[in-house]
Amino acid sequence: MGIKIITDSACDLPIEYVKKNNIEIVSLTVNINGEFLKDDLGQTLKYDEFYKMVREGAMPSTAQVNVATFEEVFKKTIENGDSILYIGLSSALSGTFNSANIAKQMILEESREAVIEIIDSLSASLGEGALVYYACEMIKNGATLEETVNFVENNKRKVIHAITVDDLNHLKRGGRISASVAVIGGLLGIKPTLTLDDNGVVVPGEKIKERKKVIKYLAEEVKTKGINLENQTIFICHADCKKDAEELKTMILEKVKVKNIILNSMGAVIGTHGGPGTLAVVFMGENR
Length: 288
Description:
Blueprint: E1 3-8, H1 15-20, E2 24-26, E3 28-32, E4 35-39, H2 47-55, E5 61-63, H3 67-79, E6 83-88, H4 96-110, E7 116-120, H5 126-140, H6 145-155, E8 159-164, H7 168-173, H8 179-188, E9 190-196, E10 202-209, H9 211-225, E11 233-238, H10 242-255, E12 260-265, H11 268-274, E13 279-284
Parallel strand pairs: 1-2, 1-6, 6-7, 11-12
Antiparallel strand pairs: 3-4, 3-5, 8-9, 8-13, 9-10, 11-13
Helix pairs in contact: 3-4, 5-6, 9-10
């Protein structure tokens, strides 16, 4: 019996890594210009096409993964003789984790011998992706399912998200900030920073003027809050602002030595809520 890692498309991992490591992806959905499309790591809806539509005025919405989808994927995996490790998008941000949990209970009612471990990542985008990555690397190196689950559960609140958005209106539309704050912030040229708390909720951070300064702030967060950086893989994700992501990567490498940096685009689901120009770095620290 093998261990099958399953995650959802909000993990924003590079599709090459996912395919290479046989990770199963269940897709959230984005509704854009009246069309419902799978958010599947840029395969159905290309990253650049999505952000082009948003920049041109499209106002997308998102939908969680439903129970039936999880039930189908879980059944197929169990019938293949594998145990399941599902790591999902923060339950504070989506009902996707709850759908997975309901599907698990339905499967176990039919097959009590099935092994299904479900973890609420309390993270989003490459924060969730980082936990999937660590779990995958552990399993490849011979870790048991129990060892892997214990590691993820014990370390998920150490995954730090340092995020900035370029346009406050997307946060306003998602109910993250008030309309008045969005207007004032826009007029003042504020580039807010965000992070996730211990409950997986997006919370405000520093308010910084100028894009250049906020990119420097993100790099400094890695330096001041990161632990054991020489042995860490750092994750950078961006919403159609690759030049800024590359600049952030350069700044980080000028400040600290890290094992590796994985850089990828944010998918349509996460990009819907942050908007074009969203930039984030994810790393391990002592706590959030």
